[in-house]
Here is the input.
Amino acid sequence: MAEETVRTIDRKARMKIPHTPYREREPMERVNDFEDIVIGYDAESAMREASRCIQCPQPSACVEACPLRNDIPGALWLIAEGDFVAAANVYRQTSIFPEICGRVCPQEKLCEGACVLGKRVETPSLGKLEMFVADYQRLTQGWPKAPKAPTTGKEVAIVGSGPAGLAAAESLGKRGHSVTVFEAAPRPGGLLMYGIPSFKLPKTLVDEKIDQLRGLGVRFTCNTRLGDQVKVDDLFRAGFHAVFLGVGANVDAKLKATGVELQGIFQSGEFLIRTNPPKKYVPEPLREAPKVGKRVAVIGGGDTAMDCLRTSVRLGAEEVICYYRRTEAEMPGSVKERIHAMEEGARIEYLVAPTQFIGDETGRVTWMELQRMELGEPDESGRRRPVPIIGSEFTLPVDTVVLALGYWPDATIGKTTPELKTHDHGLIEADEATGRTSRRGVFAGGDAVTGPDLVSTAVAAGLRAAEAIDQYLAGLNGN
Here is the structure.
């Protein structure tokens, strides 16, 4: 479709079409609840915005920048024509989550950042157009029912129900394999359910996706943790022919500082679980939201830190500040997430890092000591290393501290799975193109392999692994 339109459209005229921003709820309204902040496009504005795409010759830069290689020009051509369902189906050819990726992907680092229009005019809002057509299809026609191949008789265990696991489950289910997903939490969804706040990703979308997969025949077994309750060897003994490890990265990176054990100091994972999912989906000990008090400090600079800032605002804190040890230029998270946090009243302080936390006689944190930093030579990440400035320490009063320093996989899996090779911090060693691990019949993908990354990257890894698993299963017993 896109190749034909290159010869028939007036690119110069399209570049003169004004950008139509998608709508969001006003900051002072949205901070009072945990509802989705994005209103998005209506039909007319979506068609107008999609008409700004100049249909670049293949391969388009936006497609190359998308981890899923979505045919973005093809979809935008259909949106501009008003054929929203057909556009949604274009996305679904390569993605199982257009309604989710359109909401949570950092498009400014991916498709929108690569768009050639950005050199001259405002880039089209590619992510929110994807979200619009996926929502339109879902709300007007229901979730599409995927065709399923004849049953193969092969059983596949998917461990983890985050983006990678769900992608692999859907792909393998469509291919006729019997799929069972094992999830440690009380409800499927992984990062989508427990790690991303509801004001960015409504949990009804995750629930509906799980129900769609159940309709495909995928089974879910929750409250089952691999490595503790069940081991990979147990799955093979139970009759599974292949195992996919999509366990994600959900072990918080620890801060080495005096006083981190004080009450009122939370790891970001626990903090977000306590505050965002529906209470019925949260383990009993974590159902009570933290009483954050007036002053909240969030340590870190990624998207999780921004999520914790915005959550703290919604919990009623009056002063919410992020402390980051580098400058804004080195922050790893999304620019739009930082903008949203500041719109909602949070602040960000740069070139500072905590050195110790001080508590009162009850053992609750009351003060935080920080030290100013300056940037030195680049480290292994390519970013300039923060160097402490001697004698620059200072203290600030705090009521709650949230440590958002990143995540690593659970190293238990590697320790309890013979022949499975892992890297530092428990990252599973797997082939990038196929997800094959060092253990025969075991595949892996997503954050368990790469460390914390994007939803779309994890989905792509799950889909690649599913294709490799399908080929592996076809080779068993000569079938």
Notes: The longest strand covers residues 365-378. The chain has 20 helices and 18 strands. Residues 1-7 have pLDDT under 50 and may be disordered. Residues 232 and 417 are 6 Å apart (CA to CA).
